Amino acid sequence: MTAAAVRVRTEPATAPALADYARVPIAFTVCERLAVVEGDDGGLGGLLLRREPVAVPWIKDYDAAPAPGGAAGERPQRWATRFDVTRWGILTAWADGERVGGGVVAWDTPGVDLLEGRRDLAVLWDLRVAPAWRGRGVGALLFAAAERWAQERGAGWLKVETQNVNVPACRFYARRGCVLGAVHRFAYPALPDEAQLLWYKALV
């Protein structure tokens, strides 16, 4: 079965819906990273992102990663306890009755720093595809649905956060027309070896 047989549905973000959403795993194997190489003069000479293999591949699971401040895992079920998700949307991808992927888009939510206090900006908060369906176009369908969801709410920009250890995601967002807008080397105190990458895509 191909992505042509996949249908994407949209539903409000509620605690039960987020619990169902979390059934699709997000973990992946880190085999390479984008090493952040500092240029001359303390970085004023620019930063270079250079692909390099990691010494020992390892599993990255965002659902089990530390939350800001070093709290417990950041599973989707926790989002509704940290934020007002009433203006968030859940996108789910289905194939023959099976949930094969999903995305969550955040918009107009006080307390979400990634939104920068702007109503013209939406954040693709999460994107996941079931392991058996990765590389088959499901992510592209979900990304396009996220763009439409944001545009319907008047957002002119879609923003995405990822990390330098998620090279496949970086390539994916670049192929979708996103532009790397910021590199934050010290964004994650609990994960000092990871750098935050912020991608932006103009929707208008």
Structure description:
The chain is of the alpha+beta class and 204 residues long. The protein contains 4 helices and 11 strands. It has helices spanning 15-21, 76-82, 138-152, 167-175; strands at 7-12, 28-38, 47-60, 66-67, 71-73, 89-95, 98-107, 121-129, 157-163, 179-184, 196-202. The strands form 3 sheets. The protein has a 7-stranded mixed β-sheet, with helices on both faces. Helix 1 runs antiparallel to helix 2 (76-82). The mean pLDDT is 92.
Question: How is the secondary structure organized here?
Answer:
Elements: E1 7-12, H1 15-21, E2 28-38, E3 47-60, E4 66-67, E5 71-73, H2 76-82, E6 89-95, E7 98-107, E8 121-129, H3 138-152, E9 157-163, H4 167-175, E10 179-184, E11 196-202
Name the features.
204 residues, alpha+beta, two-stranded antiparallel sheet, 4 helices
- Shape, principal axes of CA atoms: globular
Strand order in the sheet with the most strands: 1-6-7-8-9-11-10
Distance between the termini: 33 Å
Poorly predicted regions:
none
Give helix % range.
Answer: 10-25%
| N to C succession of SSEs | EHEEEEHEEEHEHEE
Instruction: Please tally the β strands and state the result.
Output: 11
Relative strand content? 35-45%
Largest sheet: 7 strands, mixed
Number of helices: 4
| Overall mean confidence score, pLDDT | 92
Helix/strand-derived class? alpha+beta
The radius of gyration over CA amounts to 17 Å
